[in-house]
């Protein structure tokens, strides 16, 4: 069939003339002019190329030729290979960019052809490369064209596209990273690989660079630290598109070839230029409209004002214009160019623009590329749906994803108060993306209130489209109102697959959420929202909830678990120190595989530096044999690459991240940046800091840390040198402190400084009439009561000893409080939220003394209240020490200070496996408490009792916790009440019936105005108590008086309602 050729100009990449040595690289891509032609008809194919040559070889280009878009030719043609012969397209081009500094020019071109077959190769061969360190001679650009319809959408595929500078500069012995920009019109997954000599894809530059470079195929990123010869290297890649990231057979393949120049530089590796704002970050997508002029400023900076930027080289689409390089006004280190472009409707929908800055030392920045996108619509927020009071379902007008560049803020403002209630970023875990139109935002509990309106603000770039170049959203405000949840929120069906060939998958989901105001008990459904299933499972999950009125809520969804379609390991990378030569690498092998067919190295094998492709054969779930490939990469890294030691210091790597500088002469510091002086000789002891006197390298003084003094900080401060311990108490320093100490009391004294004497227990007259108190010897607060009767016959004195009852045996401490003895009285140790002599008061009614307590060594602080037999009460805090500690605030080790171990000194024996714990009360009292096992109470756990939780008093899945004879219920999230019977978000107010109306009474004398108390009911069925009133039915009212009666009721949820009416008594009886 005769070929039809239409010549035009679009993208090209620098390629040289046949039979010359001036080739600088190129790109070749294609697309069908109609992706969905009639059945049986092949479409026209449009070929696009970019070729680059040495400018001084006759490939002249200037701004006039670029602006006029003059069609040029330098010889050579695109031809057909492998199954075809009719294609012949001269490679004409339009010049787009040039560099006088590096002597190159580049341009783009296009041709159309009607093929005769479905699959073939198009290629551009020639000769020859510039003299290279890694080959040279012939070049060949080969692209594979496949016009068969795709299996996923039935359309004809288009190849990927790319761009790159013709020459990329690498400084010797410096790490350099090069990101290859790629774009795909079908939004396919794109990989880059080395061109293969076996497929005749690379001419004379096959095999990469020197073998030490690393190519990340998935991200198309080249990393290399050249250590060999300086000069020219050729690099050939094939860029391929796949329907999914797990596919192994590409849809198409296009070439990218360019030059790398390695140079020897005296400057530091991290001294290269950088791009600064307002330059977009590399990889940014910029939306432009056909026919409208787009502009962008590119700004490069040097780190040293003594240096300058000498060029910003670009590779542009047709029609781009750039202004000359000039300094940025007001800056000594920044230089810029302005880029302008008016896209035409006939141009491709996505164009790549790349740029590199070079300074006067020959150092270059990393190449950065941005994407200009036409005929695209940015994502727009169209709906905000509150889900309960902590989640928002954000619905966009198209598929969106989390952005990969930049950081855009999202804020929520209350319209009522005009204040921010939430700020965050879509990069945070608050936002859940599932690659659909929906993004789920979780805000802290209490952020949103039912019935209130809010404004959510998305800054530009908070989300992007799912296309290969994600289009960012514009700034947008959206209003919404939290109306509450009026229906059961149930998870949807879940479908997932195993990974890495595993046979089991753990599936998680959000539990169902009941409608607002509904309290129900779950009577059916899994106990957990995370279940591990074997592959092949199809499980119907059903939750059933029943309210007190027997209303039923049912949630049902299907969980499907499939096998791993590609049970292959991911890419494995091991980073080692430069010079290591290789590493032992391990990975997780496929679970299902055929050992008879596998011959790759096994996990734990040694691999040399570089990239090593491996292949596994495995048996699929349908018993078919398949294979998968992955790469094992051993990458060398050194921290000395970017960390240069100053003042002629030598950098020695310790590992891949840490280094040490060996400094020369009189320098020191992490990077040898400081000059040595007398203080380097460790003149100051005990952590003192040495400072030299100004103008001297020999005179110094020491700044001493706490607890030390003297010329060299050699003298220490004794904490007990000025102690306030009294009454013969011993002073002991607290830990390593030179300021804090403890007093070890003697002779029946107590207090922080042992300043108080323990009262003689008999001075409190604890014995009943007819008996006398006798203090027991060698004790401070123990006594017995002896009967006074001495009239027994025979002259014998029968002394009746009256046993004093233990005041803790009456269980005086309420609300789960614990009782310990205090002389002849007791101390109640109250649980958090309670206080008072008997722990009968709730929060707000007492001072929380634990707020500023000093309980140490993990001791628990409890508000405690003392009640003595002589009716004196006081509040303090008590430390319940961890085992092995005692003394003031539990600061002392029982092993070091055995006198502080009350449990051991008094030989306390807690019954029934109870555990004795030392206590210290802030008034200076030492004691103990037995922590009893379940079923036992009493000071020594000597009384058996029924567990108050045995009757299961707590409702709705709450946990019952017993404290002696009391219990409390720990409610699950969202419930409250004494037995967890109420919902926290229940905003239903009590209902008042029969609230009296206005009353006017005529009387000349004081009179009672009778009225009936109103009836108040609550949705929970619990009584609603009266909490405040300013009058009563029996109240007497004076003549000529009036009162606004207010009766306030409050339910268990804390919601108050008021009954209000007026009573008027007038003396005017006419």
UniProtKB/TrEMBL annotation:
Residues 636-673, 675-714, 716-755, 804-840, 846-891, 899-942, 945-981 form the EGF-like domain. InterPro entries: EGF, EGF-like_Ca-bd_dom, EGF-like_CS, HYR_dom, NOTCH_homolog. GO terms for molecular function: calcium ion binding. Residues 480-563, 985-1067 form the HYR domain. Pfam families: EGF, hEGF, HYR. Residues 1-20 form the signal peptide. This is Neurogenic locus notch-like protein 1. Gene3D superfamilies: Laminin (2.10.25.10). Disulfide bonds join 663-672, 704-713, 745-754, 830-839, 881-890, 932-941, 971-980.
